[in-house]
Amino acid sequence: MRRARRAAAVLAGALLIPAAASGLKVGAIVPEFEKTTLEGRRFSLAVAEKTHNGVVVLFLSTICPYSNYYNDLIRDMAGEFGKRGVLFVAVNSGKLETAEEARAHALEHGHRFDIIKDPEARIADLFDARRTPEVFLLDSRGILRYHGRIASKISSPDLKSAIEAFLAGRPIRPAETKAFGCAIPRS
Fold first, then answer.
1. Can you give the residue ranges of every domain in the chain?
2. Rounded to two decimals, what is the model's pTM?
3. CA torsion 107→110→116→118, rounded to 10°?
4. Among 58, 68, 121, CA closest to 93
5. Cβ within 8 Å of residue 25, ≥6 positions away
6. What CATH class does 17-183 carry?
7. Helix (H) or strand (E) holding 24
8. Which segments of 29-186 does DSSP mark as H helices, in order?
9. DSSP, residue by residue, 114-128
10. pLDDT digit string (tens) for 10-60?
């Protein structure tokens, strides 16, 4: 048992990658994409932006311990802010996890928001997303308003604070935070 925990800790430490400067900067217009969700619905970022106050694009993983640490918080925020016109959509990039695994993981954790499988990491490339979890908050015009982490483990509610400021029309401070997590695999 101790050996298994140690192996998991070593693996987690090896996968921990701090964010480098993203190619997509706060204030930039995010490139459009369309893709089918795990549930078979067509998702268009342009339509989502036009029909919601904001859109949170989350890069998540079923196997990354850092991503999984936030499962309950993500579920709760999606429910809370969904009532206020903010749409959450998750992207599972890379080939390490199957669509079936992502779907089962979503059901297990109560994730009712759309999830998109991105096996070739094309959406990750559009956003220059490098790790899971990594989040991007967009306004109704497709402008990136916040990029970085969901929250720090010392209870800094970064994404929640960013959405609250955004909805209140206040500046988001900080508008960029370092995301830590597991690398998004590229082919």
1. 17-183
2. 0.87
3. -70
4. 121
5. 144
6. alpha beta
7. none
8. 45-51, 65-69, 71-82, 99-109, 122-127, 158-168
9. EEEEETT-HHHHHHT
10. 333 334 433 444 478 999 999 999 999 999 999 999 999 999 999 999 999
